[in-house]
Write a structure and sequence with these properties.
single chain; mainly alpha; 276 residues
Length: 276
């Protein structure tokens, strides 16, 4: 037994280098197997993400934007740093008019990407979202950033020109509004002054008319105080004359009625005398 152990020790000692090599190979083999399975899992996950992205792109093409956003969200759950998923999510949200969320997705895609062309497209779309919200200055800023990344983009140049035109137009309109407002205030002030002057004139004229009326009334009182009676109008009867005429008519009528009563033997009915 001791001889066998001694023999083995001598064999190992003689082939020591061989054993070291075999040990290293065994370790490398284990590492390789582990890496293989890790890559296999990642590849399966990548294939799953690509499959979901393709599904989302298909739904986007068929204008099923709500379904597309759901697919892109699933892809992002598996691969939170997938630039394609963020960018495509921004496109779907833009179509749904969820512009703030769309800008957020484009911004994430621009941050995660190292490709200047993709970054330029992200800022171009951010500019479009701002433009749709009528935020001209923010829109122009995004287009300028896009052009810095891709100076040859003709669409970005055109959209930048449109945004700058809107900014200039708004500035001109605001200037006109301020001028009109200032003119309106000036007109109001002038009209107020004019109206105040008219009111003052009315008060003076009214006061003048009152003074005249007072003078006329005083003249009448003076005439009456002097014992002067108002002149009779032609064809007009005074109260005394009317009462005398009525008494005469009643007396004459009474005589006639008495005469008739004697002739016919009937009693005479008195009449109610009305007040004049």
């Amino acid at each position: 037994m001791q001889n066998k152990l001694q023999h083995i020790k001598e064999f190992i000692k003689k082939h020591k280098t061989l054993f070291i090599v075999l040990t290293v190979l065994k370790l490398l083999l284990k590492i390789g197997i582990v890496l293989y399975f890790v890559c296999k899992v990642n590849d399966v996950a990548a294939q799953s993400t690509n499959k979901i992205l393709r599904q989302g792109n298909k739904e986007y093409k068929n204008q099923k934007y709500n379904n597309a956003t759901e697919s892109y969200s699933k892809a992002l759950q598996k691969e939170p740093k997938d630039v394609r998923a963020h960018f495509n999510q921004g496109d779907a949200l833009f179509q749904l008019n969820e512009l703030d969320k769309a800008k957020e997705s484009y911004t994430n895609a621009a941050k995660l990407s190292t490709n200047t062309d993709i970054q330029a497209k992200c800022f171009y779309n951010i500019g479009n979202a701002f433009y749709k919200q009528e935020k001209w200055e923010e829109s122009a800023k995004a287009y300028k950033t896009s052009l810095k990344l891709n100076p040859k983009d003709a669409d970005a140049k055109y959209n930048l020109m449109m945004a700058l035109s809107k900014i200039k137009k708004d500035a001109s309109e605001n200037k006109d509004k301020k001028k009109d407002k200032k003119d309106d205030k000036k007109d109001d002030k002038q009209n107020w002054r004019k109206k105040t002057g008219q009111e003052k004139n009315r008060r003076i004229n009214k006061k003048t008319r009152r003074g005249r009326a007072k003078d006329q009334g005083q003249d009448k009182k003076d005439e009456q105080g002097q014992g002067q009676q108002p002149k009779e109008q032609p064809g007009q009867m005074t109260k005394e004359q009317a009462e005398k005429l009525l008494e005469a008519m009643q007396a004459e009528e009474g005589k006639v009625q008495q005469k008739l009563a004697k002739e016919k033997g009937k009693p005479v009915k008195g009449k109610v005398q009305k007040d004049w």
